[in-house]
Design brief:
By secondary structure, the chain is an alpha+beta fold. The protein has helices at about 55-70, 75-80, 85-115, 120-145, 150-160, 165-170, 185-190, 195-215, 235-240, 240-265, 300-310, 320-330, 385, and strands at about 20, 25-30, 45-50, 175-185, 220-225, 230-235, 275-290, 295-300, 315-320, 335-345, 345-355, 360-365, 375. Strands 4, 5, 6, 7, 8, 9, 10 and 11 form an eight-stranded mixed sheet that branches. A three-stranded antiparallel sheet has the order 1-2-3, with helices on one face.
Length: about 400
């Protein structure tokens, strides 16, 4: 499950470096000088405090409440992953039980081995048995982590057949579109919340909705970042239409945020109109690695997708490599516009704002599905066949023609 953000805390508020802001009597505190005050994210902009460090302490306490409330996001995300069919749910629960049993067994074997004398045949046999069980345990844990990051069709297949898991194992280094989604002006939104609990509910439910969009479009959910999510669309998993699916999911995420924010206006004392999702997309070779006991994606495309996530709210920006791939494969369905964005330590960089046009596109089902049917995807609608059963072949009566 995604890593839980650490609780923000301020050990010595008077030790925080400050400086006068020209033309004012207040104090300006830079995030890099007080990372523990602003939580685990560096929001990249200085925050101005008219009341000095007393205001900082107040904000730190508010952030502490918010992150404490957000601590259940990981558990809620995991619970969604087993809320599919009863068969899938029971198999996943059985897998959890097997993991717990193996953990106990490995711990018991390790204790017994320590108590045995060196060089005895019995100890050597127990060491071999322990290594076998450890290998089995790690394989099951890997599978469990993967189940939390893919949609229902892939989850069902992973539980029934290890062929898809082997596909992930064989493609630890692969070509993928990386999508970084960031809630712009999240700090200001948090400070405008009527209660920390309300903001926590707003951001956690938003993250779960965005996760659902990614999974519906055959993406892989990587992590919840505190005020957004990171996901990727490997070509071996999302298929030949992975790039178009990534852009389509980005568009849908913008729509989800607009609706979600409108429905949660009651959570805020005033409603910012300049907020929204900044979405960055890059393409290239990435590696799926184990980090702190979980699977995550690393690579240059991840770095630049996250930087492009600093786009203005409501904008999707793609980097040069992603632009070239999308232009070569899906130019008929996408419109591009050159933009300039400031990258830290790099200066102004060229990026491309991308929008989905109104033309209907043909989306091919990923090859790992048992039935490889083509589904139509219209730019202004989220296809019901992708949401429910990508393996089905909808009839005209079900609305297949209108896509």
């Amino acid at each position: 499950s995604p890593a839980t953000p650490p609780v923000a805390r301020l050990q010595n508020p008077r030790a925080v470096r400050s400086r006068k802001r020209p033309g004012t009597s207040g104090v300006e505190i830079s995030p890099r000088h007080c990372p523990k005050v602003l939580g685990y994210r560096n929001y990249g902009t200085s925050v101005f405090y008219d009341a000095g460090v007393n205001r900082i302490v107040s904000n730190a306490n508010q952030l502490k409440s918010v992150y404490a409330s957000l601590s259940d996001v990981s558990n809620r995300t995991t619970s969604l992953s087993i809320a599919g069919t009863s068969g899938t749910s029971s198999k996943q629960l059985r897998l959890d039980e097997e993991i717990q049993d193996l953990k106990k067994k490995v711990a018991t074997q390790a204790t017994e081995i320590v108590e045995l004398k060196e060089g005895t045949k019995d100890k050597e046999q127990k060491i071999i048995a322990l290594e076998v069980n450890q290998k089995e345990l790690l394989a099951k844990i890997d599978l469990r982590h993967l189940l939390d990051r893919v949609g229902d069709p892939a989850r069902a297949l992973l539980l029934d057949d290890r062929g898809l898991k082997e596909l992930f194992d064989e493609n630890e280094t692969c070509l993928a579109y990386v999508v970084s989604i960031d809630l712009r002006r999240s700090t200001e939104l948090m400070l405008k919340a009527r209660e920390p609990k309300r903001f926590a509910e707003f951001i956690s439910s938003l993250a779960l909705s965005l996760r659902g969009v990614i999974l519906e479009h055959f993406g892989v959910f990587d992590k919840f970042t505190g005020d957004g999510i990171l996901a990727y669309f490997p070509e071996f998993f999302a298929g030949a239409s992975s790039g178009l699916l990534a852009i389509e999911s980005a568009k849908r995420c913008h729509q989800v945020f607009d609706q979600h924010y409108r429905e949660h206006r009651h959570c805020f004392t005033s409603v910012l109109q300049s907020t929204g999702l900044g979405i960055g997309v890059d393409y290239g070779e990435v590696s799926i690695v184990h980090m702190k006991g979980e699977l995550t994606v690393v690579g240059t495309p991840v770095v630049y997708a996250c930087r492009l996530g600093g786009a203005n709210g409501g904008t999707t920006l793609v980097n040069q490599q992603a632009y070239e791939e999308l232009l070569g494969r899906f130019s008929e369905y996408l419109d591009f516009e050159e933009r300039s964005i400031e990258f830290k330590h790099e200066g102004p960089m060229l990026a491309y704002a991308v929008r989905r046009n109104e033309k209907t596109a043909k989306i091919s089902s990923p090859a790992w599905l048992l039935e490889q049917d083509d589904v139509s995807l219209k730019s202004d609608e989220l296809p019901a066949d992708l949401q429910k059963s990508p393996t089905s072949n909808p009839s005209p009566e079900d609305g297949a023609e209108k896509y």
